[in-house]
Recover the amino acids of this structure.
C-alpha cells in the first residue's frame, strides 16, 4: 500500500475543514487511568532465546521451515509505555538486524512491536504480539510479510533476560477443515462509503502444523464471488490465541487480511477478520464468525461435540456485541516515532478523537482525528474498519487508506470500563521506514 488514491487529498481537505470548524466546541475528557511511566514495567536491556523454528509461506502455497534460528532483542530506550528496540536474528544460512518501535499496555502487560526499515532479502518487517510472564520472561508471537509482501512468515517463542526461558506448553492440534455458517461482511471504502456483503461463508483448511505454527488455505464464497488464499498462522503461548496472515495476490473483490482468532474449545475457532485491498480503490473488509472443525481423523473422539457445534446458529455462536457507536477522546498525549536507522523522536499531540459512526453487528466503521501540539493548526484524520470481540473486550481496527503522514495502522482498543478504552497503536509508513506507536486512554464523551 504505497500510493494514495487520487481522491484522498480532496477528502482529507474537506474533512479537515469540518474538524477545524468544530474544534472550539470539542469536549475533551481527562482519562481516569492514563498509563504512566510508573505503570509500565521497565523493558530496557537484552532479551534472547537460543533456538526456534520459522515458517514461511508463499502466495503459490510453497513453504519453507527454518530451524535453529537465534534471536536477541535489545530494548535500547524506553519513555513511559513506548520503547525502541533492535532485533538481531540468524542461523547458519541467514542473518539480519531490524529496528522497531513498541508499546506496553500495563493492563495485563501486553506488548506490541512493529519493525521498521527495508526488509532483508530473505527477511521481513513484522508485527509482534507478546506478553510479559514475569520480570524476566516474555512471550513473542511474530507475524510478518516479507519484501514486496510475497511471503508470510510466522513463529512463536519465549525470550528471557537472564537464564534459560521456560518452553511453553505444546500447542493444540489445528489440522483439519474448519467451516463457518453464513455471515455478513462489512465493506468500507477510502472515501467513506460502506455496504454489506450478506450470506458469505468461510472455510479454513489447515494442512500442516509444526509445534505452534501452521499453514493452510482460507477460502470464502459470497454468491457468485469467491476466492482462496494461502495462510500462515501462529498459536500464542497460551495455546488459545491465534494470529493468521493471508498471502498472495488479492482476489477480485477480495482483501489480504490480518486475522485474530481464539480457540474456545478444541473444535471451535472464533474468527475476527480485518482485511485491506489496494486494487483500484482502497477498501477494507471486516467480519466476525465462528468456525467449527469437521475432521474425520478426530471423529471418533469429537463426533458428538462436532455435531452439536455444527447445529449452533451464527447468532448463538458468538456473544452479542455491545452498542459501541459514539466518540472517545483524550487530552494532550505523546507517541514515539522510530526510523529505519534506529533513531527516534517523541511526538506530541494536543488531542485524539476516536469515533465509531457505523456499527453492523460486531463490525464497525470509524475515524481517528489527531491534532499537533506545536502551535500549528495541523490536524490528521483516518478512516478505520474494525471488529468487536465481546468475549475478550477488544476492538481490532485497521486504517482503510493511509492516514496521518502516510501511515497505515493496526490498532487494538481494550475496553477497560464502560466509558473508557485503551488504544494500542502501531502505524507504519508506505515505504516501511517510519513506525509510530502509542498507548492512550480514551474517555467516552
Amino acid at each position: 500500500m504505497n500510493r494514495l488514491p487520487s481522491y484522498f487529498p480532496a477528502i482529507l481537505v474537506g474533512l479537515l475543514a469540518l474538524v477545524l470548524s468544530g474544534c472550539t466546541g470539542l469536549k475533551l475528557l481527562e482519562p481516569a487511568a492514563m498509563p504512566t511511566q510508573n505503570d509500565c514495567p521497565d523493558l530496557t536491556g537484552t532479551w534472547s532465546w537460543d533456538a526456534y523454528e520459522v515458517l514461511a509461506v508463499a502466495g503459490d502455497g510453497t513453504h519453507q521451515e527454518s530451524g535453529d534460528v537465534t534471536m536477541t532483542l535489545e530494548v535500547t530506550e524506553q519513555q513511559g509505555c513506548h520503547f525502541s528496540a533492535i532485533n538481531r536474528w540468524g542461523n547458519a544460512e541467514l542473518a539480519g538486524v531490524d529496528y522497531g518501535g513498541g508499546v506496553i499496555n500495563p493492563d495485563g502487560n501486553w506488548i506490541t512491536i512493529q519493525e521498521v526499515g527495508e526488509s532483508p532479502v530473505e527477511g521481513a518487517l513484522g508485527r509482534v504480539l507478546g506478553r510479559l510472564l514475569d520480570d524476566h520472561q516474555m512471550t513473542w508471537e511474530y507475524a510478518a510479510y516479507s519484501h514486496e509482501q510475497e511471503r508470510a512468515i510466522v513463529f512463536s517463542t519465549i525470550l528471557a533476560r537472564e537464564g534459560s526461558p521456560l518452553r511453553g506448553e505444546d500447542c493444540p492440534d489445528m489440522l483439519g477443515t474448519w467451516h463457518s455458517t453464513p455471515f455478513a461482511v462489512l465493506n468500507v471504502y477510502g472515501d467513506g462509503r460502506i455496504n454489506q456483503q450478506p450470506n458469505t461463508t468461510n472455510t479454513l483448511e489447515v494442512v500442516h502444523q509444526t509445534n505452534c505454527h501452521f499453514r493452510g488455505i482460507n477460502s470464502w464464497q459470497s454468491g457468485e464471488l469467491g476466492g482462496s488464499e494461502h495462510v500462515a498462522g501462529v498459536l500464542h503461548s497460551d495455546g488459545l490465541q491465534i494470529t493468521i496472515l493471508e498471502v498472495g495476490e488479492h482476489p477480485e473483490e477480495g482483501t489480504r487480511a490480518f486475522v485474530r482468532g481464539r480457540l474456545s474449545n478444541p473444535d471451535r475457532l472464533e474468527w475476527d477478520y480485518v482485511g485491506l485491498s489496494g486494487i483500484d480503490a482502497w477498501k477494507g473488509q471486516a467480519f466476525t464468525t465462528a468456525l467449527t472443525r469437521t475432521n474425520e481423523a478426530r471423529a471418533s473422539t469429537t463426533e458428538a461435540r462436532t455435531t452439536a457445534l455444527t447445529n449452533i446458529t451464527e447468532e448463538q455462536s458468538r456473544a452479542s456485541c455491545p452498542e459501541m457507536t459514539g466518540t472517545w477522546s483524550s487530552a494532550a498525549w505523546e507517541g514515539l516515532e522510530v526510523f529505519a536507522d534506529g533513531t527516534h523522536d517523541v511526538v506530541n499531540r494536543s488531542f485524539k478523537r476516536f469515533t465509531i459512526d457505523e456499527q453492523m453487528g460486531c463490525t464497525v466503521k470509524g475515524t481517528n482525528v489527531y491534532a499537533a501540539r506545536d502551535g500549528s493548526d495541523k490536524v490528521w484524520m483516518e478512516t478505520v474498519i474494525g471488529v468487536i470481540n465481546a468475549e475478550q473486550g477488544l476492538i481490532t481496527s485497521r486504517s482503510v487508506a493511509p492516514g496521518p503522514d502516510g501511515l497505515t495502522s493496526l490498532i487494538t482498543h481494550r475496553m477497560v470500563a464502560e466509558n473508557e478504552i485503551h488504544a494500542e497503536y502501531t502505524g507504519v509508513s508506505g515505504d516501511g521506514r517510519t513506525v509510530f506507536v502509542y498507548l492512550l486512554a480514551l474517555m467516552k464523551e
Remarks:
- Helices lie at 8-21, 299-310, 314-317.
- The domain at 176-317 is CATH 2.40.128.120 (Lipocalin).
- The mean pLDDT is 78.
- The two ends are 33 Å apart (CA to CA).
